[in-house]
């Protein structure tokens, strides 16, 4: 049996409406109760086409386009437009320009962003080298603390605060090569930029990515790319248009439009990308479904009975195509203007710990010679470096301070096997009257704090800001406390 349904295409030349034939499929008997699905007639179809129509992410809710039905209809000769006309009767086709979308990576919730790229990357207005990792924690003002290390777990190369909480690939635009993709330390790779945001007090990771780059990851996670080899390429084209429309109609968060799980659309980054599904995305670039001129949140599922035409009036809509901001993620230009008052520290490229070590006399001071690289404190609450007779610890709150080895072990219990032989005796370090530096849990709101002599006496601490101040406890803000005249180190002769 055949019936007529209509789909309208909006173009720059006006509106064109056409009537296309629709083949009504015979529904296969199913029984759905809660999440339990009993198949009877559907079993025969699954056996006839073994492995060809297995849903990639489950059967789903059954609303809108059936991916299985789209595959069957594509094999019967339907175009993507005819498939969409059947499942979304009354919808129009519209066109958009290049657009960027923000995607919340839910597996990264409550974690810092730790990422690198084989070709290097850009963060905080600076370029980092191939394989160097950027570690970002969000700040309440919308910026981020940044720590850059050699590899994911290597020594600290530099650290800073930035009002742009994103890491960018070294090249601009969509379709970048694999070596420019940003890879999570211990995880998968993503096209576009990766950044951080706060939702209340919770950390969130966001992938800011060109829409078609995003769909290159979505399509093979939602529909089997090998359907293109089995007469189902038009189903992939229909899926690309539906997925593009769904994403653009989303508006879930202040910091991102959509998410990366089946709560929204499955999006595992680049790991499942396939040239066949990417071709389907490219073949539909800019095409979206509209209802009354607004982008339709075109729901779909893997309903195995072929599905039914949807009542699109029950679906939400997003912005009109004209309301979209046409853009694409681009790296920050790494131009760092020379400050008007260039300091010795800035010229030398020193860290806060290096500056303090030079200030107290370097190798000729009470702490002696360095015996290892600068390392991160737990929870990225700051950094430390060991010397033959003591340790310099730097935190966001008070800058650099000299402490003894016993204090270091309270902060970093695993550092015991790194201690020098001189650690067996008490280093000749002086603690201000009033007690040892106080140790606050690195996960606490204030991070690790070491009071100065002035603070112990209840006096205010003064001194100019050092632009190279170190990263503090997550979420605590970036205070640049260290500088000449700031909290003094705790060493003999201070």
Give a description of the structure:
Helix 2 runs antiparallel to helix 5 and helix 4 packs across helix 6. Strand 15 and strand 16 form a beta hairpin. The N and C termini lie far apart (94 Å). The strands form six sheets. Strands 10-9-14-17-18-7-19 form a seven-stranded mixed beta sheet. A six-stranded antiparallel beta sheet has the order 13-12-11-8-15-16, with no helix packed on it. A five-stranded mixed beta sheet has the order 2-1-6-20-21. With 494 residues, it is an alpha+beta fold. It has helices at residues 42-48, 67-75, 80-87, 211-222, 233-249, 275-282, 344-348, 352-359, 405-411, 453-456, and strands at residues 2-11, 14-23, 30-33, 36-39, 65-66, 92-95, 100-104, 113-116, 121-123, 126-128, 133-138, 144-149, 156-162, 166-169, 182-184, 189-190, 193-199, 202-210, 258-259, 287-291, 294-295, 300-301, 375-376, 382-387, 390-395, 399-403. It is built from ten helices and 26 strands.
Question: How are the secondary structure elements laid out?
Answer:
Layout: E1 2-11, E2 14-23, E3 30-33, E4 36-39, H1 42-48, E5 65-66, H2 67-75, H3 80-87, E6 92-95, E7 100-104, E8 113-116, E9 121-123, E10 126-128, E11 133-138, E12 144-149, E13 156-162, E14 166-169, E15 182-184, E16 189-190, E17 193-199, E18 202-210, H4 211-222, H5 233-249, E19 258-259, H6 275-282, E20 287-291, E21 294-295, E22 300-301, H7 344-348, H8 352-359, E23 375-376, E24 382-387, E25 390-395, E26 399-403, H9 405-411, H10 453-456
Parallel strand pairs: 1-6, 5-22, 7-19
Antiparallel strand pairs: 1-2, 3-4, 6-20, 7-18, 8-11, 8-15, 9-10, 9-14, 11-12, 12-13, 14-17, 15-16, 17-18, 20-21, 23-24, 24-25, 25-26
